[in-house]
Amino acid sequence: MAVVSQHVSDPSVGPKDSARKSTFLRVSRYVIVRLLTLFVTVVIGIYLTIVIANMGGFVDTIMKGEIRDRVTQTIINNQAYQSMEPEVRQKLIQDTIAAEEERRGLNVPIAVRNFRYLSNALTLNLGRAINMTSDSGSKQVRLILLERLPATLLLMGISQLFLFFSSILLALNLSRRYGNFWDKLVVTLSPTSAVPPWFYGIFLILIFAALLKVLPFGGMVDSPPPPTAFEYSMSLLKHLALPTLSLVLSSFFLSIYNYRTFFLIYSSEDYVDMAKAKGLPARDVERKYILRPTLPNIITNFALLIITLWTGATITETVFLWPGLGRTLFQAIGLFDIPIIVGSTIIYAYLLAMTVFLLDFIYSLVDPRVKVGG
Amino acid sequence: MQRLFYYPSAVFGLLIVLLLVTLAIYAMVKIPYNEAIRLWRGGEAVWYQNPKFAAPAWINYFSSKKYAESFAVKTNDGTLQSEFTPGAEGTSTLIANHTFDFSYDTYPQDMILYFKSEYLEKQPFVSIEWLTPDDRAVRIANIAISKEFTYRFAQDEKLKNRLRTDDIIASLFSDPETGFPIKGQYQLLITGTTFEPGSTINAEYVFHGQVYGLAGTDQARRDLMVPLLWGAPIALTFGLIASLGSSVLTMIIAAVGTWYAGWVDELIQRITEINLVLPFLSILIMVGTFYSRSIWVILGATIALSIFTGAIKSFRSIFLQVKESMYIEAARAYGASGPRIVFLYLIPRMIPLLIPGLVSSVPAFVFLEASLAVLGLGDPVLPTWGKIIQDANSNGALYRGYYYWILEPTVLLMITGLGFAMLGFALDRIFNPKLREI
Prior knowledge:
Chain A is mostly helical. Chain A has helices spanning 2-53, 58-77, 86-103, 110-122, 141-176, 181-189, 197-211, 229-267, 270-277, 282-291, 295-311, 314-319, 325-334, 338-366. The longest helix of chain A has 52 residues, at 2-53. Chain A is flat. Chain B is α+β, with helices and mostly antiparallel strands. Chain B has two domains: 2-29 and 223-435, MetI-like fold, CATH 1.10.3720.10; 57-208, Jelly Rolls. Helices cover 54% and strands 16% of the residues of chain B. Chain B has 17 helices and nine strands. Chain B has helices at 8-30, 33-41, 44-47, 59-62, 157-163, 168-173, 225-260, 262-277, 280-291, 295-307, 310-323, 326-333, 338-374, 385-394, 397-400, 403-431, 433-437, and strands at 71-74, 81-86, 92-102, 110-118, 125-131, 137-144, 148-152, 184-194, 200-208. A five-stranded antiparallel β-sheet of chain B has the order 2-3-8-5-6, with no helix packed on it. In chain B, strand 5 and strand 6 form a beta hairpin. Chain B starts with 7 loop residues before the first helix and ends with a helix. At the A-B interface, helix 1, helix 2, helix 7, helix 8 and helix 12 of A face helix 8, helix 9, helix 13, helix 16 and helix 17 of B.
């Protein structure tokens, strides 16, 4: 018996083992190659962003001119220095300019500085902002970004998550009875998504803030902020309403339309007809036969949505004076604040690379037809 | 193509697009480019005849309260009636009068008289009188005028004292008893005397009402008609060039990549991934802030950033199928060269698939240009719809109730976006049979 069992188990273990080994090899090779290419992609992307963010040294000229102008003005206008000898004062001006340029790192050649920015960015050592400060007075890029993050997460989180789930549910519903009034309405209204959210924002401000005077024009809370937690959150909700609504409105119908078309294509498959013919309940057909094969795409959309939460909506935030990351980035560009531009880009790039990497594995988990590195 | 007419939305979209093209051509013919720039960049010297922040005149049709309309008349072209009679000892007299109907419920913003005179030593003398519908005659001013002289009714301190009011304009147009505006015929009478032979006086009467023209005016008295008209050709040019440029280039690059495969294809794929990491809007904002706000530079950057996007992957997958088809094999068999196959066999096959995407992506680019303008990064020279919105926003148009200012450009932009989107949607259904069945 023992011999037999050994005899039987040996060949059966052999191929399984080698199959596992080859799977392991294939997956680990894939992981290494994929991680390397993604890393190189991020490095090149960030380097390009840095080069663009100082326009190949053009921004240096602007900043140097600005420093020279300001330092000269302050020293000449300072009463305490009026009695100084002109040469001494000139030397003071030169020294201050040199110190200021050194503080901003302008004395280091641009190519060196670019690589310094790059290595700092890649190690997530975000450093200090040049011009901007956080509301608590810190110049740390990390703190500035962290301070604005909740505002963006709140606005984008509510609008995008609502958009995502409501459009999938409604689309499923519509795909079941396509051709009826609501379905046609969604199809007719889907071109409205050609209009960006800030545009709806202007209309909503016009209607609700200017004409009806029920909601505020912009900002995040009343000023001064209400003392109690309840009043504070009520005020927050009031300010949140219009930007959220404009973000939702601008992609609502197109999003439903896209999912609906997508579900319809999948529900015209033979196996769905087969399931219906078997007499399975509509709920089961929907969940097991339509939703399941579309899961990879839905997951991709969800992952990309999570990334957009981070980037915020620059123009919508600017129109509504919402103190989020998108508006911060816009302000940073206006102030030539390269560390902040690079900081927010690197986080976006890492998140994107991570998502792209993880999605391959998630696909293979939810869809047995997909093989990692296969 | 005939199938296009089965879709009402396609017909509607096509109609809008054609209307926009007509509008654009009309704008370019009516106001030549250089003239448009001169008007748009012009300050007080060009626009002094217009009121500030004036709504369009047609709101009077919809409003129960009638707003005063603007006008300007001058003796030079005879719109301000005048008579110049030589008198004794080298003197001459100018009598100019303008009678106009005033049947509004609001006072005008301002009234100004511009005098231009020629003389050697002795300044001409002018007296101004105001006749109201209830037959009161108000003596406005008696003044000696210089070569270029501007008389502003509202700022005449002497007149303020005489009329015992702070608001001269209001008091000139209202009943002294009730304080309400009197409707009827008003007359402005200017009597001028010159004291030298050959000395002349020219007068211009500018009446800044509360409403102006078809489109209204902005903070710099500019007629909004100029940017509204010129916004059309600029928006269409930007949208069409950007979408055409990016989609055609994307297609060519995808075709080249699939045909030559190997490292070319690999390179294209890697560039696409890198481009995905780059923050699109931030880079455009940076280009606009640091480098140049010229619309052509922004257009170039937009196209460059839109080439290597997800679209390249979908083109690639279709080209991979086409590459295997029989007619390509036949072409290869008779010895067609690589470029010949790419440009004469692969790409023409894709054009029908290109068109819907091209049309649908126009609104995105039109709005991109407007978005950048709203962020203050619009072309500093060109009059565009986005610039109007930005001007309106920075002057607090919504807070102060100048709704026309925001609504006019936004409605035009919205119509443009919807027109192209509707057309693109219908084209998509026509060219993608899979969608048509559904």
